[in-house]
Amino acid sequence: MHIPVLTIDGPSGAGKGTVSRLVAKKLGWHYLDSGSIYRSLAIALLKQSADLANEAEIIKVAQAMALEFDCGDELVVKLNGEDITDQLALESTGNIASQIAALPGVRRGLLQKQQNFRQLPGLVADGRDMGTVVFPDAENKVFLTASSAKRAERRYKQLIEKGIDANLVNIMNEIEERDRRDMERKTAPLAMASDALYIDSSDLAIEAVVEEVLNLIH
Ligand code: C5P
User: Fold this and answer.
1) Rounded distance between C-alpha atoms, residue 11 and residue 16, angstroms
2) CA geometry: angle at 25 spanning 19 and 30, to 5°?
3) What tens digit of pLDDT does each residue of 102-149 get?
4) Is the shortest distance between the CB of 35 and ligand 1 below 6 Å?
5) pTM surpassing 0.70?
6) Ligand 1 atom closest to Cα of residue 130
7) Beta pairing, strands 123-127 & 140-145
8) Share of the chain above pLDDT 90, in %
């Protein structure tokens, strides 16, 4: 049975998470936040004091970790039974996630975990390589981006709202560093699929982006 997929790829802070969640809700589809899988692995590695330079050890931890996702209004993630939701959003988690995400064996090890989210009646998948590597046969693909200044500003607001201390200049630097790493890595770099719709959300309200994406589906 064919299961439709909508992929939304792009750099961090472009609004992929919010847009994907809203679109999934409107369509009644499942939602995959693939970044949270890399982030969960980062947390698992920190908890086990794993050697981040040892790819074989990282792959072992990736294969052993049991993840549970509860995609209600807010995403809740459990790692081996423990709620790690609060730690997921930290910039330090994102930075480690982006370092280990550059390792080909780690990406291979996490591929099936991501593809398992493809279930009826459909899936909205958000990440960096959803349309290029994980679901290349998706019939609807979007590449959502925004200027790095706008993305830093949004991330800053998100963190402050969550009560997490943040510094705008540091966030901007980290975002640019993470973009560079995500785009320059050899395996599954952040890139637009040739058949994706390009949306720049710098000057668009979330609702306008959601509408544009829903138009694509209909
Ligand atoms: O999207 P998010 O900021 O949560 O992703 C954290 C990191 O995980 C990214 O910087 C990226 O390096 C990695 N990632 C990836 N492929 C994906 C999703 C995230 O490499 N599909």
Assistant:
1) 8
2) 95
3) 999 999 999 999 999 999 999 999 999 999 999 999 999 999 999 999
4) yes
5) yes
6) 21
7) unpaired
8) 80
Question: Relative to the CA of 9, which ligand 1 atom is closest?
Answer: 21
The greatest distance separating any two alpha carbons of the chain, rounded to the nearest whole angstrom, comes to: 48
> Hey, how many other C-beta atoms are within 10 angstroms of the C-beta on 208?
12
> What is the distance between the alpha carbons of residues 123 and 137, in angstroms, rounded to a whole number?
13
Instruction: Assess whether pLDDT exceeds 90 at residue 58.
Output: yes
Task: List residues bridging with 83 in a β-sheet.
Answer: 78
Residue nearest to atom 14 of ligand 1 (CA): 35
Q: 5-212 architecture in CATH?
A: 3-Layer(aba) Sandwich (3.40)
**pLDDT at residue 56, rounded to an integer:** 96
11 touches ligand 1 (CB under 6 Å): no
Structure tokens at 156: 């800053």
pLDDT(73) > 90: no
94 lines ligand 1 (CB under 6 A): yes
User: 7 vs 31, 82, 112, 133, CA distance in Å?
Assistant: 10, 29, 16, 11
